[in-house]
Automatic annotation (TrEMBL):
Claim: Cell inner membrane is one of the keywords in the record: no
Entry keywords, A to Z: DNA damage
Domain Methylated-DNA-[protein]-cysteine S-methyltransferase DNA binding: 86-166
Protein origin, superkingdom: Bacteria
Pfam families hit by this protein: DNA_binding_1
BP terms from Gene Ontology: DNA repair
Molecular functions per Gene Ontology: catalytic activity
Gene3D superfamilies: Winged helix-like DNA-binding domain superfamily/Winged helix DNA-binding domain
Family annotation (SUPFAM superfamilies): Methylated DNA-protein cysteine methyltransferase, C-terminal domain
Protein name per Swiss-Prot or TrEMBL: Methylated-DNA-[protein]-cysteine S-methyltransferase DNA binding domain-containing protein
Length: 185
């Protein structure tokens, strides 16, 4: 990590990613494009994930999004704040404890792991990069409104797991009996 006043440049151990972030009052601000680059995905995937988080009321958009404008453009840039933390090990440890047939939310996982609520955005990335990735029950982590994120490449596999564990979804991919299935550690 190279420090330069208010800008920090992070470089991965394999040398692939350089991301410039702005610190403001102990908060890291990143654009959706920067988050996508950090997580090795495309911006639309980040946008969809963030919109689901706001829709589920896991976070309040007004207090977690900073809008800036591009010169000579009427389109604003949304910057999201991510507070850095050392809670990755705790997230992995907790995810592995979610019992079969039960679910938890990204928000519960972030809070119990000791992170800021905005850290929900990092959970999927943390778990996906875990050395225990094959053991992690991703399907047991859902949005706080009970909605399940069924990414097309994993949809069939997850639906089979839900069926096997007795977890039922409605036609909108929301958990049936959500309140009875929530595991809070």
């Amino acid at each position: 990590m190279i420090k330069n006043s208010q800008i920090k440049i992070y470089k991965s151990k394999i040398g692939g990613i350089n991301i410039r972030v702005k610190f403001n009052r102990e908060t890291v601000w990143m654009t959706q494009t920067q988050i996508a680059e950090l997580f090795g995905t495309k911006r639309p995937a980040i946008t969809k994930h963030i919109n689901n988080i706001f829709e589920s009321k896991e976070l309040i958009e007004k207090s977690n999004v900073l809008k800036r404008n591009i010169a000579n453009s009427d389109k604003p840039i949304n910057r999201l704040k991510l507070k850095p933390g050392e809670f990755s090990k705790k997230v992995i440890e907790l995810a592995l404890k979610i019992p079969e047939g039960r679910i938890t939310t990204y928000g519960i996982l972030a809070q119990v792991a000791g992170g800021h609520p905005m850290m929900v955005q990092m959970i999927t990335h943390i778990l996906g990069k875990s050395p225990d990735v094959d053991k992690i029950p991703f399907h047991r982590i859902v949005y706080s409104n009970g909605k399940v994120w069924l990414e097309p490449r994993y949809e069939k596999e997850r639906l089979k797991l839900y069926k096997k564990e007795g977890i039922k979804l409605d036609e909108n991919n929301k958990l049936i009996d959500f309140d009875k299935k929530v595991f809070t550690f």
